[in-house]
C-alpha cells in the first residue's frame, strides 16, 4: 500500500508559485494490523514512514520555491540593469 503526498506552493491569489512536488511512501497494508498486540508497532512503522516522507517532500518543494525565487530575482536584476543602460544611452 502506498500514500501519495503532494505539496503545492500557491500565491495569495491561488495561482501556482512553484511546480507541485509529489512523493509516494510505502505503508503497511491493513492485513498487518492483526490485533492489539501488533497495532502499536505497525502503526509506528506507518507513522515514521509518513513523517519522513512528509519532511522530504516539503524540503524538495521548498527547494523548487527557492529556485523559482532566484530565477525571478535574476530576471528582475537583468531588467533593472538593461533599463539603467537604456537610460544612459538616451541621455
Summary, kept brief:
With 91 residues, the chain is an alpha+beta fold. It is built from 1 helix and 2 strands; from the N terminus they run ββα.
Q: Characteristics of this structure?
A:
two-stranded antiparallel sheet, 1 helix
Your description of this structure?
The protein has 91 residues and is α+β, with helices and mostly antiparallel strands. It has one domain. The chain contains one helix and two strands. Strands 1-2 form a two-stranded antiparallel sheet. The model has no long low-confidence stretch (mean pLDDT 89).
What is this structure's SSE topology?
Blueprint: E1 2-10, E2 16-26, H1 36-90
Antiparallel strand pairs: 1-2
Amino acid at each position: 500500500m502506498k500514500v501519495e503526498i503532494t505539496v503545492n506552493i500557491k500565491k495569495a491569489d491561488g495561482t501556482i508559485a512553484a511546480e507541485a512536488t509529489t512523493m509516494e511512501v510505502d505503508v503497511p497494508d491493513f492485513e498487518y494490523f492483526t490485533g492489539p498486540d501488533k497495532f502499536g508497532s505497525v502503526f509506528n512503522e506507518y507513522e515514521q514512514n509518513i513523517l519522513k516522507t512528509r519532511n522530504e517532500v516539503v524540503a524538495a518543494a521548498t527547494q523548487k520555491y527557492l529556485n523559482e525565487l532566484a530565477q525571478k530575482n535574476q530576471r528582475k536584476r537583468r531588467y533593472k540593469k538593461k533599463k539603467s543602460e537604456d537610460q544612459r544611452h538616451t541621455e
